[in-house]
Write a structure and sequence with these properties.
By secondary structure, the chain is an alpha/beta fold. The chain has three domains: 151 residues, 3-Layer(aba) Sandwich (Rossmann fold); 138 residues, Alpha-Beta Complex (Argininosuccinate synthetase, chain A, domain 2), CATH 3.90.1260.10; 30 residues, no CATH class. The protein has twelve helices and 14 strands. The strands form three sheets. Strands 3-2-1-4-5 form a five-stranded parallel beta sheet, with helices on both faces. Strands 10-9-8-13-14 form a five-stranded antiparallel beta sheet. A four-stranded antiparallel beta sheet has the order 6-7-12-11, with no helix packed on it. Helix 9 runs antiparallel to helix 10. The mean pLDDT is 94.
């Protein structure tokens, strides 16, 4: 794109060294006005410094946007995803993936508000995030201009980044001058670490990498019991105390941290085609996932449950790839949400040294009928003799196949 075509750009800005360099690079390369947007998604960092650094780098005060999105993040993104029990490649709870559409959505809203003609992000050209951000941008504002500095500039090494920062008087923390041992992305749902010391999948993750979970071996010797209440598939209370979505997830995070729950060492397949190794910590999400499956086990019909399990990998893939605003994800969401009509009740869980176990579940809409499953005699709606015809009908095609094999001497 022609540099002069961009007059004002909204940058997804963390306040860290990389996005500060991007901010100055946009100013010097495009000669445009930069508007910064910093999202509080529960990453656990003070966001005041992000505002101060933006102002220091010449951003007008009215063009520094910092928004607390924690409740919206959990209510409108995390919870809908957890209704689907979404796991990418059977393990990953999608903590990074699910944050990107919300950040992109707010960027576009700010762009419309301030009359910007472009948006920019700090994702690299090798990762998934560039895809997630840009698919969301284009879905929400088809004619938007997108600037991805990591795909344009020649600052290809840490040394060059530091040199650029020094040249433009960008403050550099002492721990940022050397090569970063690994990179971290965090929000209220998870913390992910990847790169450098984690790049060799044969090496165990060093203890110093973990930030959200305690060592399971050092966790309390006595289990923690917790009860999670659900309404229509969403968690609404812990141990009888009603909580907002973000407050509830934060409480589960604390319980998970204490008990060493939620660590995942994963080699995954990125959308862009390569495999990568990352370490994910999702303490509250791991508990929530187990609890949700627990309440579904007594409230969902077998057919609905099995269909959900068939749809889940596709749903998780769509979230991972960045298709949150695509019609197919919305179609799947509608089906999943319909299934949650009676997914209400309470689940009791036992947390112990890195493990989560469902130890009790109850619901006013339970489909579990003790009279049906009991071995004791009683007036029940199930006649054992009915099973004979059921089995014979299901065996018909197998018997037919067996007869053909016998006839052919196979």
């Amino acid at each position: 794109m022609a540099k002069g075509d961009v007059k004002r750009v909204v940058l997804a800005y963390s306040g860290g060294l990389d996005t500060s360099i991007i901010l100055k690079w946009l100013q010097t390369t495009y000669g445009c006005e930069v508007v910064t947007f910093t999202a509080d998604l529960g990453q656990g960092e003070e966001l005041g410094p992000a505002r101060d650094k933006a102002l220091l780098l010449g951003i007008r005060p009215e063009h520094v946007f910092i928004e607390d999105l924690r409740e919206e993040f959990v209510r409108d993104y995390v919870f809908p995803m957890f209704r689907a029990n979404a796991l990418y490649e059977g393990q990953y709870l999608l903590g990074t993936s699910i944050a990107r559409p919300l950040i992109a959505k707010k960027q576009i809203e700010i762009a419309e508000k301030v009359g910007a003609d472009a948006v920019a992000h700090g994702a690299t050209g090798k990762g998934n995030d560039q895809v997630r951000f840009e698919l969301a941008y284009y879905a929400l504002k088809p004619d938007v201009k997108v600037i991805a500095p990591w795909r344009e500039w020649d600052l290809a090494s840490r040394t060059k980044l530091i040199e650029f920062a020094e040249q433009h008087q960008i403050p550099i923390a002492k721990d940022k001058r050397g090569e970063a041992p690994f990179s971290v992305d965090a929000n209220l749902l998870h913390a992910s670490s990847e790169g450098k010391v984690l790049e060799d999948p044969a090496r165990e993750v060093p203890d110093y990498v973990y930030s959200r979970t305690g060592d399971p071996e050092q966790a309390p010797d006595r289990p923690t019991y917790v009860t999670v209440a659900f309404e229509r598939g969403d968690a609404v209370a812990i141990d009888g105390k009603k909580m907002s979505p973000a407050t509830l997830l934060a409480r589960l995070n604390e319980l998970g941290r204490i008990n060493g729950i939620g660590r995942l060492d994963l080699v995954e397949n990125r959308f862009v085609g390569m495999k990568s190794r990352g370490m994910y910590e999702t303490p509250g999400g791991t508990i929530l996932h187990a609890a949700h499956r627990g309440i579904e086990s007594i409230t969902l019909d077998r057919g609905a449950m099995h269909l959900k399990d068939e749809l889940m990998p596709k749903y998780a893939e769509l979230v991972y790839y960045g298709f949150w605003f695509a019609p197919e994800r919305e179609m799947l969401q509608a089906a999943i949400d319909r299934s949650q009509e009676f997914v209400s009740g309470e689940v009791r869980l036992k947390l112990y040294k890195g493990n989560v176990a469902v130890v009790g579940r109850e619901s006013p809409y339970s489909l579990y009928d003790q009279d049906l499953v009991t071995f004791e005699e009683g007036a029940v709606a199930y006649d054992h003799r009915d099973a004979a015809g059921f089995i014979r009908l299901n065996a018909l095609r197998l018997r037919t196949l067996g007869q053909r094999r016998k006839k052919l001497g196979l």
